[in-house]
Amino acid sequence: MKLTLCRRFALAFAATCVCFASIAPAQPPAPLKIDPILQAAEDARIAAIDRARPSAVSVYVPGGGGGGSGVLISPDGFALTNFHVSSPAGVYMRCSLADGNVYDAVLVGIDPVGDLAMIRLLGRDDFPFARLADSRRAQAGDWCMVIGNPFLLASNLQPTVTWGILSGVGRYQYPSGTLLEYADCLQTDASINPGNSGGPIYNDQGDLLGIVGRASFEKRGRVNVGVGYAISIHQAKNFLGYLRSGRVVDHATLGATVTTEENNGVSVSNILESSDAYRRGLRYGAEILEIDGRSVQTANDVQNVLGTLPSQWRVKMSFRDQGVRTDTLVRLRSVHRKDELLQKMSAALPPPPPREQEKKEEDEKEPGDGKLPNLEDLKKLKDKILQKPKKKKYPKEIEKQLVLREGYGNYHFNLAEQDHFIAALRGQFPGGKADVLPTWHIEGETTEATPRPVSIQIESGNMALKVGDEVFGYKTKADLYEAIDRETIAGILPVLDAWRRMSAQGPKKFGESYYLGTMPLLGERPLRDCMIATDGELEVRWLSHPKTHLVEAVEVFADRDRDPAELLVVRKSDEKGQQPIELKLLFGTQAKLSFTVSSWETKLNQSPNREDAS
Amino acid sequence: MGNQTESIAKQGGRLVICLRPITLGLWIGFVGTLFAGQLAAQGKLSDLSKTAQARVVKIYGAGGLAGLEAYQSGFLVSPEGHVATSWSYVLDVDPIVVLDDGRRFESKIVGFEPALELAVLKIEASELPFFTVNKQSGIQWGDPVLAVSNLFGIAAGNEPASVMQGTVASITDLDARRGTYKTPYRGQVLILDLIANNPGAAGGALVDAQGELVGMLGKELRDAATGVWLNYAIPSDALRGAIGDIIAGRKSSVVDTSKPMLDRGKSHSPKSLGLVLIPDVLEATPAYVDDVLADSAAMRAGIRPDDLVLLVDGRRVENQRSLRELMRRIDRRDEVEITVQRDTEIVPLMLRP
């Protein structure tokens, strides 16, 4: 019976076909044959889109306040978007993926200058995420695609794919003031419209090339005119660690201005004497050749490189002065002063979007009820924007990962990194225990041609360094400060003391501490995790390997405008319990003391509460 | 494509309604793939882009006020530095030409053809890569193309111009005579499925999948009735004659100094032809006609008030002073060929004394 039914359907279907065949030519045409080259190109494109689409994110501001796009970069939900997309949402947004699900997302860190923001989607630890391309190898003419949420079309949760080519690479788009600067960015003719902001641009393999953020809109209205810009993923990679710190992060500047010379070289036209570049010998008139391994020929090139670097990074730099070439390392300064960035940011922020669940306060009259707002209304609006965020109700899962604090997008993520840091520090040689201050005694000999014995004692109120006949003894904090300020070999004492105290006290008791992000060590990648702690006038930095979490360098600054005492820790293996085989003390790029470690004794006998170094 | 339509039709009756959009979708997808396919046979699109970019220049000149961009695009048409570009206000000063490698040159305008909105500049250089302007480009609708231009002046540094891709949507006449589009160009245009004609794109190159020049991007044009912006290029075969004549020196807009300056009584002047120009109060007052004297050569030839004198005997009239200078080299007994712009039309006229 079933069979018969099936047959009848088949017959009916055949009949329909015959009907159509009578419209079409009598002979059924052979199936369309496509040139194999075309077929291969088409298949490759479909495969690339299928690979890319799962990591694309559509971002919505809860309450209907707009939205944009984003892209997942890790299985635990970390995603990138634009600062100008996340800022109207504040710390909480809703995100949809092509899988048809909607997830809560919380703000992590923001980079208002580079127009980047990191958010975290919650609820899974197996999110699909994009593979990062090497955008430095991208060139004009490369096929690419943009996937996102143009005009917030993804109401069915399916993102929009637009295809095109890179129209140019290494483009520079001016900031507004000092924020939203697009340096060394990609230009594409793939359609980019409002709502695509923050979303991914992929190459024809489906690997992430950059973050879409801007387009040239002019007299034709705010729709695509074939010119969109994306922040290169190379720049984003530089900032990933900084953003993960949950901070409001800043970009880098050299502390010098440059001009393009007639013969296409770039020379220093002005330089701050307090800058690290000046300390490394860069002077007025010197020709800059390379920064961070990239050759520069024009002032544009210099800004294109610097604009993609985070503040406080130390990068390689080469310059020529009076015919002499210098290859050195330079610490970059911040574009903004400490509070300047926060002020500019809040001034640039659009007013908070309407929230449906939020009741209007009785005395608050919304400006814009048809009449022009008067001065008082404007003042109120300004106060509303500038005031500290009010305690709002967020979903429980968001609240768990949210700590608001001035200078941070979300302090929760910084605390998490601090916890990782201290656990790793205590878990590696010479170790440490909470609230138990050890005494260190280190022996070794210098790596000079005729080695001298080295002996170091690190004990509260009693620091000593002996190198051959040279003896240094320090008792107070002022002494330690002096040791760095004078750039003597005794600068190793405050460094080791800071390390010792951090291992016992932890970031919360040491002094104001925070996780900075990741940066190169001596200009080299991989990027190292950097923890900063301040202790009175001293600022200490730990640089740890991203994989092994072993401390590779500890720096102590006595003065921001002077070279820090920098201790390089050389280990034989990645073994956590193994003691370093060599220690090197540097000021600037000069090694002042270098010795092999034969023994490193630690005694756990004091409580840090009893410590009184000053 | 016919085959494809039928294969869809065969799948079922209900599809008939949406047949057209589906066909269109396939068609567009097909064309995009075509480019990939054609290129797969030839090498990478980035190589093609690079070759084209090396032949496109950025041009900086007059403008920068009242929404007028002070930049546009051009492309090299000879190894000695002849640059074809769009005739526009940007060329009101001797423009600066920047090559794809960042080299900057001062340039001279060596010729222009108002009816094509074409100008040719010359820089002092040699052994430059250049486009051959072919007699027959063979471009057809549906063909993939690259547009290379200095749109929006994005490539502000010493970097190459921008590349965009798309297809030729159709080849057709521009409906310009009735004022729908404000341009003096009356020939065929390539309509592009590609947002090519942005500020600064005029004078850019349109190349095919083989890297051959097929057209020059035109100035921004907007349909006066619908407000729609047109994306188009002037086909290279339309430009070939004029570019060739200018490069060969057969058609030059530069003042021919070999001709002697005649006495005022023996040479022509605007007045001798019956032209009354608007008052010459600026350093470079354009040669607009204010009035035409009765029973004069100008009247007989049909010159009208508000005509703008562009050429005198094929030589470029930059301003009223240059018009007077040009006329000083023409014998009063000789006839004079004057080309004027009347609204959006280019009108050549012969004035017989």
UniProtKB/TrEMBL annotation, chain A:
Keyword line: Hydrolase, Protease, Signal
Coiled-coil intervals, chain numbering: none
The protein's matches in Gene3D superfamilies, at most eight in alphabetical order, are given as:
2.30.42.10, 2.40.10.120
Q: Which SUPFAM superfamilies match?
A: PDZ domain-like, Trypsin-like serine proteases
Span of the signal peptide: 1-26
Q: Would you say which domain of life the source belongs to? A: Bacteria
Region (Disordered) location: 341-379
Single Gene Ontology MF annotation = serine-type endopeptidase activity
Q: Which GO terms describe its biological process?
A: proteolysis
Q: Which SMART domains match?
A: PDZ (SM00228)
Cited PROSITE patterns: PDZ
Q: What Pfam families does its record include?
A: PDZ, Trypsin_2
The UniProt record lists the PDZ domain at 230-297
Q: What is this protein called?
A: Serine protease HhoB
Q: Which organism is it from?
A: Stieleria marina
Automatic annotation (TrEMBL), chain B:
The record's SUPFAM superfamilies line, in alphabetical order, gives: PDZ domain-like, Trypsin-like serine proteases
Q: Which domain of life is it from?
A: Bacteria
Q: What are the GO MF terms of this UniProt record? A: serine-type endopeptidase activity
Residues forming the PDZ domain are: 271-344
Q: Which UniProt keywords apply?
A: Hydrolase, Membrane, Protease, Transmembrane, Transmembrane helix
Which InterPro entries does the record match to this protein?
A: Chloro_Bact_Ser_Proteases, PDZ, PDZ_6, PDZ_sf, Peptidase_S1_PA, Peptidase_S1C
> One Pfam annotation, family name?
PDZ_6
* Membrane spanning stretches: 21-41
Q: Name one GO biological process term.
A: proteolysis
Q: What is this protein called?
A: Serine protease HtrA
This protein's species is Stieleria marina
